Structure formats: C-alpha cells, structure tokens
Amino acid sequence: MKKASSNRIVIIDAFRGFALAGVALVHMTEQYIASAPTDNLMEITNGTIDQILSGVIGFLIIGKFFALFSILFGLSFFIQMDAAAKRGQNFAGRFLWRVLLLFIIGYAHHLFYKGDILTIYALLAPFLIPFYKMHNKWILLVAGLFLLSIPRCISYALLGTESAFGFSSFMDFNNELNTSYIQTLKEGSITQVFTKNAGQGMLQKMDFQIGFLGRFYLTFGYFLIGLWLGKIGLFQNVEERIPTVKKWLKRAVVFFLVALLVTGGLFGLSPQPVDFESWLHILAINAYDWSNIALTVIILCGFILIYMKNWGEKRLSFFAPYGRMALTNYVLQSIIGTFILFGWGLGYLGKVRTLYLFAMAILLIVLQTILSKIWLTYFRYGPLEWLWRSATFGKLQPFKK
Predict the structure, then answer these.
(1) What is the value of pTM for the model shown?
(2) Contact 27/113 with Cβ under 8 angstroms?
(3) Which of 166, 134, 172 is nearest to 38 (CA)?
(4) Which residues pair with 9 in a beta bridge?
(5) What is the rounded CA–CA span in Å between residue 85 and residue 113?
(6) Partner of 280 for a Cys bridge, out of 178, 230, 270, 300, CB 3.0 to 4.6 A?
(7) CB–CB of 266/283 below 8 Å?
(8) Residue 221: what are its φ and ψ, rounded to 5°?
(9) What is the pLDDT of residues 332-361, one digit of tens each?
(10) Which of 19-33, 167-181, 279-293 has the lowest mean pLDDT?
C-alpha cells in the first residue's frame, strides 16, 4: 500500500475525492436548491439527453456518493481515535470540540446552501464515541437496524408524511413556503438567502432528516459502517483483504438485483398514484434504499479493486489532492455553484439544461483537483483544514511545507 510522506493512506484520500466528486455532480445538477422543485422552477425545457442524464445520475449517484462520504466520516473518526489511543491519549473530548467546530463551519456553509451535510455530521458525530470500543458484531447489528430503516417506520407511524415542525406535507411541492423559498433563491439578495436559510432552512433540513425519508438514520448507519471498516483495518491492509472485497462485491450484486425486484413489486402492489399514504409505499422506499446500500457497496468494492491495479491507481490517484482538501473543496464548490445559479450572483437558476449543469460540475471538479494539487505542493493542508486543525488543538499548526 503506497502512502504519502505524512503517513496518510493515499487510497483513502483518493476515495474521499471520488466520493466528493459524486456529491458535486448531484448538487450542481439539482441546482443547489435542496428543496423539492416547484412546477415553475425551470424556465427552459430539458431535452431527451437531459432526461436520460438525470436518470443516470439518479440511478448511479444520488444516495450513493453521499453514503460513501458518510462512510469515510466514520472511518476518519476511527483513525483519529485509534491514533490517539496508540499515543496513550483519549481523543473523545478533543473529538467533541472538533465536531462543535465542524458545526460552526457547516452552519456558515448552510447559509449559502441549505443542503449542507456538515451540520448533520456534527450533530450525529458525538454518538459515535460509545461505539469506538464496542465489539464489531454489535456495531454491525446497530448499523443494520439503521440501514434497514427501522427508525423510518417509527417516524412514519408517528408523523405519517407530515412535518415535525408544522410545515406543509413533504408531498406538497408547490406549497406557499416552498414556492417562496425558490423565489428567494431566484431573485433574492445574499442577505435574504442567508436569512431564509438561517432559520426556516435549518428547520426544513431537520424535517427532511428526521421525517419518513429518514436521511438522519441512514447517515448514522453509514458512520458505523465506516467505523467498522476502520476496526477491521480494511484500508490499512487492503492487499490482504482483496479476496474478502471480491466476496462482498458478489454478494452486493445479488442483493442489489433482489432489492430492485422487491422495490418494483412493492410499488406495483401499492395504491396508485403514489402518494406515500400507504405502508406499502414506505416499504417500497425501504427496499429502494436497500438497493442504494447494495450499489454503494458495489461502488466501494469496485473502487478498491480497480485502485489496486497499477493502471487503476494511476488514474484514481487523480482524486487524492481533491480528497485531502475535501472540506475546503466542499464548501468552495457550494459557494461557486450558488453564485452561478442564485439571484445574488449570476442568476441562472432554472435557466440551464441538465447537460450543461453536468458539464459545469465536471469542469469545477477538474479545476479544484488541479488547484488542490498545486496548493498541496506548497502547503500541508487546505485552508479550512488548517483552520479546523489549529482550532481543534488550540494552537497554530504548521502550514507551509
């Protein structure tokens, strides 16, 4: 396993960059609205190519690369805790302070983009600490309960499709609140966008996280999977794990096909049109999530197997600088994307075809990766990574090489 001079495991940086690239593609093609699109959002008509591209992104990327990013967060937690333990230190208190700082960074990012995930990571991260010393089988059991969407069933039983904070139903895309929000993004000043996101936007995000769509629960399940992967030393001893990875891949392919069949069958049996007022619809969503989980495993295993080939390592290592500066790049791509699309910037929201949004995302990823590589030839960390690290330890960290 090749490592950087700082003992960073390069495959993890490359994988993080790869996952972040998928996140960037989704956010840009969804136009950074982080809300259900209203009927009048698009001022132009997407053609056949755009619709095919949207379908491909929905099938292969949406819900999968966010999952990979979340798995990597859990893995990073283990690496930090384990490194401190080997030095005879307890990192738990420092980790809590670190996630508080992450929440502050995330909230600043959230003002630009309501779909920010850093605040959610920061809220969930403290609950990882008790699992650090837990036996692997219990970690997998709890992760399974979350990933099987048991909490979603509880939420649906209590709330149905209604909001926990008194907003309109998730299914009412054209309600006054959502229409007003989209209009603010289209025509509002940056102050107006910040104001909307600061209060209402945060509550709506939490509504989405704890409601029957259940992203909160899935995120923590993925955290636990990342922690487990760290505990079994997958990336630290990846060569030895290749037979196991191949076995996971085969099982994931089978599970993916079965989950798709179950999803189609449940939606076929459900009352039509789909309105999520039936338990069959909720079970169908669960089955679809299982297919997403299986495809996430397929992508993870596929990345590892390709990376371990000489030709694969040369190509996929392209993402390593992008991944090393993931925090900086994640926040910066949102600021650039919202500037291009929102009214306080260039104002192209609803005016650009999906094909062109996809091309813009690719260009942004490539540019950020190249600039990250140049930056890291002179500096040890990305700007936000350095600030976060310095604040974590309460003193300025070495910055220039």
Answers:
(1) 0.94
(2) yes
(3) 172
(4) 3
(5) 36
(6) 270
(7) yes
(8) -60, -45
(9) 999 999 999 999 999 999 999 999 999 999
(10) 167-181
